[in-house]
Structure formats: structure tokens, C-alpha cells
Amino acid sequence: MAREDDYRQQLQELGIYEPAFAPAIHDLCVTEREYSRAMKAWREAAKARTAQALSTDAEYGPVLQLRKEIQAQREALGLTPRGLQKLRGKPKGDGGVAGAALSRKLDAILEALSDG
Prior knowledge:
Elements: H1 2-14, H2 22-48, H3 61-77, H4 81-88, H5 96-115
Helix pairs in contact: 1-2, 2-3, 3-4
């Protein structure tokens, strides 16, 4: 439950938390626990074979799948830059990385001016 509270707090700090996010936060935490168990099992299997745990092992497939699921869930909640941008509804713009950096700087200047 503590991890769920951490995510809830992060979303509140970002200003995007909604109570409807609670099931998605719970699902993310469950997926993270499954990922942890899969990683542990993968490492233990490598020890049992007396071989190094390589990412090319067949047993690594579930680990990769869970990692992809976690990333997708984090993005859906707005816990990644791209996901946050989607939730806030900001257009991507044509400036690429440089345009994004300029946009952040301008947002910071506007925020400073509105506070003062």
C-alpha cells in the first residue's frame, strides 16, 4: 500500500491526480510486484543452471513483457514525460527536444511572473 501512496502523492504533486486513478495505481503496483517476482525467479533459475542470467535466456520473455506493461501503465497515469504531456493536453510541437526545452523555460518564466 505504501507504493500506491507514493504514486498518489507524485500525481498530486504534478496536479493531475483524480480519484478515478486509484484502480490503475493499484494495477501498476501489482504489475511491479509480479515483475519483481519474475526477475527473482529468472535469477534463481540461472543460479540453478550455474550459468549467468542473460537477457537472451528464454525465461527472460515474461520479464520483458512485464517491463513493457509497467512502462505502459506509468505512461497512462502520466508518470512519464510523454504520458504527462498527453494528460495535460499540450501539443507536441515541431521543435523536438530543443522546442520542448524552450517550452519548459517559457513556462517557468510565465509561472515566475504570475507568482510575482
